[in-house]
Structures are given as structure tokens and as C-alpha cells.
């Protein structure tokens, strides 16, 4: 079985997420980065190609050239990875899909819900795999929690609390990563809610298997001069009647990447924390606390498939990201067992962003969540 060939859009000099995609994609040697349009600057794209150590002739000046030239090759790319700021997601994905290439894209899917619906139609027409990198769904114990809830281990779900505090934007924006996230022309209408709030939202729905049906949003802009939200509180109601709360903040001084989820059912509760991802706590209604660890005997098939090392050998963010790429490779090869998020998840994420921003500005109460 040959390695799948990846072309990257974005990920040029100074990028954070582009190199992460490359490392994750190549971790299991099922995929190889061979081409890219890494920057809107031809010079920077060539420099990135050198840094990634690809054939210089495959570091292209722009997206259109990459797609056209790769289509002519006897060994073309098999898919495109989009690692750009949000405003480029739709045009890049549209171009790649219409050129006949599968696409894996950083989240959120687009900058508006209307664009996400447009992209969904393009995906359906193209008939090619499309995936979104909601990274935290790749952790083995997140998948274990999902499987246990599906099997009824917690009983009917009553309460979901998911929080994602960061502190890196507690001061005015400086640097490439902060600047584009604070620019509505590039990030879209959402700031914190679009950057990390959608991760928390997806995680809650992914693990519980439930969909949010109503929301009440309170988004704030704390840092003076910032044009998008940087602190979010969203109350949730799920389709089964469960209630929940989503807290996302990028102005919480001292916090690093504190994504944590707590889920409570009729029979038990659970807690998982991204900064300590190899432990899953289960709290039983008889007072027992059960620690489930990555690599433990008895883990379900999804967790085992997402693990690479025996218990006691920590796996983290890059391995979780790599699991999404491994799942995506399965999709491209027509194999079963993929849990990588797709365009349906993208639509729900964009709906959360747009509705939360609009409802918060209007001071609206409980509102039906619609996609």
C-alpha cells in the first residue's frame, strides 16, 4: 500500500498550524507531504517548500497553479490540506474539490453559515471525502468516553459542562496569529467563539452523541479595541432535555489550553481534561471514582485503534491530530472505521458562531438552534 500524497494550502513561514498538520499527517507513514501553495507570496511559498524539504518544483506560487500542475502529473497529490486563516477556507476547498481532489480543512469550515451551506453543496456534488480537524475528537480517551456513553454506562445524560479557557489574548493583539484572529475580514464574525468555542461545542456533541437544540449566548469583548469577542458564555439545551454550559475565554490570565468536559448521567458522570489527556475519570452513583487510563486493558475498539503506545507512555495533541489524518486516509481508501468530523459538523459549528454572535448582540433569550 503506497503512501497517500498530500498538497498543502497555507502553512508558510511563521504559521503555527501548518507544521502541525504536516507532522500529524506523516506520523503513521500513511501520508507524505509532496506539494503546496504555502503562501500568497511566491517567494515565501518557495521558502516553505525548502523548510518542508519537498521537491522545489512542487512549491507553487498559488493555489490554481498547484491544482493544475498536480493534475497533469503521473504521481499527483491525492488530497489537499487547508491550513489558512478562515477567510480562505471556502475558496481553497471549492477549487480543490472542483479539481477532483479530496480535502481536509482546519476548522471552522468557513467564515459564514451561508458559505458553509455553499461548501456542503460543493462537497456533495464533488463526491470526494471532506474532513475538518476538530482535533480533540482524535484523543483515545475521548473516543472511549463516547463509546461508553453510547453503550449506556452513564445512563440518560442530564448535564454537560464544557470549558475552554486560554490566556494568550489577555492583552492587545500582537503577532501574526493574534492579528488575523482579531480581524473580522479574515476570521469571520466570531473571535473566541470561532477559534476555540467551536472546539468545545463539537466535543460536547461528539462525546454525548446528542445535538444541541437551543442556546442562550453571552459573548463579550474584554480587551479595548478588539473587534471580535474574546470571552464567551453559552447555555445549552440538548435534544434529549439535558442542560449544559459552554465557557470559552482567551483573556483568562494564566490559563494555557484548559479544555475540560464534564458529563453527568443518571447512573454516573465523567471528566476529561485536555492538558492531562491520558486520564478519564468516571464517577459512579455508589460513590466510587474510577480512573481509566490510556493503554489500559479493556478499552474499547475505538480507543485501541487511536492508541500507538502501551499504558504509561503518554500520547498527546500531535497523536490525536494524527488520528484524524489516519481516519481521513481510511476514507480516501474506502475503508470503514473513520471518526473524522465532516461537513455536517462544519455546518453546526458555523451555526453556533453566527447565532451566538447575533443573539448576544441582540440580548436575546433562549433561541432554537438551527442549521
CATH architecture of the largest domain: 2-Layer Sandwich
- CATH-defined fold name of the largest domain: Dihydrodipicolinate Reductase, domain 2
Tell me, what is the CATH class of the largest domain? Alpha Beta
N-to-C order of helices and strands: EHEHHEHEHEHEHHHEEEEEEEHHHE
Q: How many strand units? A: 14
Strand order within the widest beta sheet: 13-12-11-10-6-9-8-7-14
The percentage helix is 25-40%
GO molecular function: nucleotide binding
Domain GFO/IDH/MocA-like oxidoreductase: 142-270
Protein name: Putative dehydrogenase
Pfam families: GFO_IDH_MocA, GFO_IDH_MocA_C3
Set down the secondary structure blueprint:
Blueprint: E1 4-10, H1 17-26, E2 31-37, H2 42-52, H3 63-72, E3 79-83, H4 89-98, E4 102-105, H5 113-126, E5 130-132, H6 140-150, E6 157-165, H7 176-181, H8 184-187, H9 192-208, E7 212-220, E8 231-238, E9 243-249, E10 260-265, E11 268-273, E12 279-284, E13 289-293, H10 301-305, H11 317-333, H12 343-362, E14 367-368
Parallel strand pairs: 1-2, 1-3, 3-4, 4-5, 6-9
Antiparallel strand pairs: 6-10, 7-8, 7-14, 8-9, 10-11, 11-12, 12-13
Helix pairs in contact: 1-11, 4-5, 5-12, 6-9, 9-12
Amino acid at each position: 500500500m503506497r503512501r497517500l500524497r498530500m498538497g498543502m494550502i497555507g502553512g508558510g513561514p511563521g504559521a503555527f498550524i501548518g507544521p502541525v498538520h504536516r507532522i500529524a499527517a506523516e506520523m503513521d507513514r500513511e501520508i507524505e507531504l509532496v506539494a503546496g501553495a504555502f503562501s500568497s507570496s511566491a517567494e515565501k511559498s518557495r521558502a516553505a517548500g525548502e523548510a518542508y524539504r519537498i521537491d522545489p518544483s512542487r512549491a507553487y506560487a498559488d493555489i490554481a497553479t498547484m491544482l493544475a500542475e498536480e493534475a497533469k502529473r503521473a504521481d499527483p497529490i491525492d488530497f489537499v490540506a487547508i491550513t489558512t486563516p478562515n477567510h480562505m477556507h471556502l475558496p481553497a476547498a471549492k477549487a480543490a474539490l472542483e479539481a477532483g481532489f479530496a480535502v481536509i480543512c482546519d476548522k471552522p469550515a468557513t467564515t459564514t453559515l451561508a458559505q458553509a451551506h455553499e461548501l456542503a453543496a460543493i462537497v456533495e456534488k464533488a463526491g470526494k471525502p471532506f474532513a475538518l480537524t476538530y482535533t480533540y475528537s482524535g484523543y483515545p480517551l475521548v473516543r472511549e468516553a463516547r463509546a461508553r456513553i453510547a453503550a449506556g454506562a452513564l445512563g440518560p445524560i442530564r448535564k454537560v459542562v464544557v470549558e475552554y479557557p486560554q490566556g494568550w489574548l489577555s492583552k492587545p493583539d500582537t503577532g501574526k496569529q493574534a492579528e488575523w484572529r482579531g480581524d473580522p475580514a479574515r476570521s469571520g464574525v466570531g473571535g473566541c467563539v470561532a477559534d476555540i468555542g467551536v472546539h468545545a461545542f463539537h466535543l460536547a456533541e461528539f462525546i454525548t452523541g446528542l445535538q444541541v437544540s437551543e442556546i442562550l449566548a453571552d459573548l463579550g469583548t474584554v480587551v479595548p479595541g478588539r473587534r471580535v469577542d474574546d470571552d464567551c458564555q453559552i447555555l445549552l439545551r440538548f435534544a434529549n432535555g439535558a442542560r449544559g454550559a459552554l465557557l470559552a475565554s482567551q483573556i483568562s490570565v494564566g490559563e494555557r489550553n484548559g479544555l475540560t468536559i464534564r458529563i453527568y448521567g443518571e447512573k454516573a458522570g465523567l471528566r476529561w481534561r485536555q492538558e492531562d489527556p491520558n486520564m478519564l475519570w468516571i464517577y459512579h452513583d455508589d460513590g466510587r471514582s474510577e480512573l481509566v487510563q490510556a493503554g489500559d486493558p479493556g478499552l474499547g475498539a475505538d480507543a485501541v485503534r487511536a492508541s500507538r503506545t502501551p499504558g504509561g507512555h503518554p500520547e498527546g495533541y500531535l497523536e490525536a491530530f494524527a488520528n484524524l489524518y489516519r481516519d481521513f486516509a481510511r476514507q480516501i481508501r474506502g475503508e470503514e472505521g473513520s471518526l473524522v468530523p465532516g461537513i455536517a459538523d462544519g455546518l453546526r459549528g458555523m451555526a453556533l458562531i453566527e447565532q451566538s454572535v447575533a443573539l448576544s448582540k441582540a440580548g436575546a433569550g433562549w433561541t432554537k438552534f438551527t442549521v
